[in-house]
Amino acid sequence: MSEAFHIISDGSCDLPAELAQEKNITVVPFYVSFDDEHYLKENVDIDIRDFYQQMVDKKGVFPKSSMPSIQDYAEAFRPFAKANIPVICICITAKFSGSMQSALNARALIQETWPQAEITVIDATVNTVLQGQYVLEAARLRDSGWSFRDTAARLEEVKSTGRIFFTVGNMEYLKHGGRVGKVASLAGSVLDVRPVITLREGEIFPSGIDRGRKRTTQKALNLLLEYLQESRLGIECYSLAVGYGYDREEGLAFRDHALEALQKKGYAIEEIPVYQIGATIGVHTGPYPLGFGIIEKGIHD
Questions:
Q1: Which helix (H) or strand (E) holds 88?
Q2: Are 128 and 14 in contact (CB under 8 A)?
Q3: Exposed/middle/buried for residue 208 (C-beta within 10 Å: 0-12, 13-18, 19+)
Q4: Residue 229 confidence (pLDDT)
Q5: Number of helical H runs and strand E runs in the chain
Q6: pLDDT tens digits, one per residue of 155-178
Q7: Which of the listed residues 25, 150, 170, 176 has the most CB atoms within 10 Å of its CB?
């Protein structure tokens, strides 16, 4: 434990386990249940592939997620409090989950024993793959020599730039979870249309509906292009990633199409990482979410 400070995130960040380990990031998992009784720790008791396979195999069954407990966070904080290492803890948008409140309560609990413990809890105002990019920017700042306080301040500065532009396979899971309005729900059931959605600053905004996967994924790409066109910064100042659910091949093809489109527009970009969207958000989107996450980098290249 020689690091200047440690980074912790809840499992909504959807970082691959090996990447989190490589970047020295602790992930506190969410829980998922298919029967309302038995809750399994994501990536501990159930892996993401199995989660999605169960969704695909059990149509009409709507799994639920549950946030990390106060005890889960306290166990993550404790070794760093003992070692007097500051912690930055990044949580899913508080508008979607009580995870951040669990972390705040755990901090208070830890500070009863170690009053000197420095634990900053940040509301990412985002989730899933975009939260993962945000967490990676925190690690990049730390590993570039930024201080604990300067990193926390910079993270607060950039988080409002985060956007997710995505679509889903159908509206069933969004309807079941109450994530779309009644009009959109009716349209989904009658017309078999699919939504395109923007998430920014912790809120979901409908960005259109259309028929067919090709059209809705193109709309998501158009939203990304519009965001970049309106930005005062070049694409090199952003962290961009693709998120997919059950179908990795579709995610890779979507990434390749996006790269080609961006390059044709004159953007100097050679790669876009592709990450699997986890159960925390998958329970609301169903097995076929697909889209982009983009956020300003903590340090510009």
A1: strand 87-91
A2: yes
A3: middle
A4: 96
A5: 11, 13
A6: 999 999 999 999 998 777 777 766
A7: 25
Yes or no: say if 75 and 102 are a contact pair by the CB < 8 Å rule: no
The Cα–Cα gap between 180 and 240 comes to 26
d(CA 54, CA 90): 29
Q: Helix (H, G, I), strand (E, B), or coil: what is residue 46? A: strand
Collect all residues with Cβ–Cβ distance below 8 Å to 281 and sequence separation of at least 6: 12, 14, 127, 128, 289
* Residue 71 CA from chain centroid, whole number: 22
Q: How far is CA 57 from the centre of its chain?
A: 25
Phi, psi of 196 (to 5 degrees): -115, 130
Two structure tokens written together for 211: 């028929």
Q: What is the pLDDT of residues 2-39, one digit of tens each?
A: 589 999 999 999 999 999 999 999 999 999 999 988 99
State the number of CA atoms in the 13 A half-sphere of 60 facing the CB: 0
Residues with pLDDT less than 50, the chain: 1, 182-183, 186
Judge residue 225's burial from the number of C-beta atoms within 10 Å of its C-beta, 0-12 exposed, 13-18 middle, 19 or more buried: middle
Token pair in block for residue 92: 């899913």
Contact 162, 139 (CB under 8 A): no
Name the residue type at position 43.
Answer: N
Give pLDDT, residue 183. 38
Residues pairing with 123 in the sheet: 91
Q: What pLDDT does 234 receive?
A: 94
CA distances from 17 to 123, 173, 197 (A): 22, 26, 27
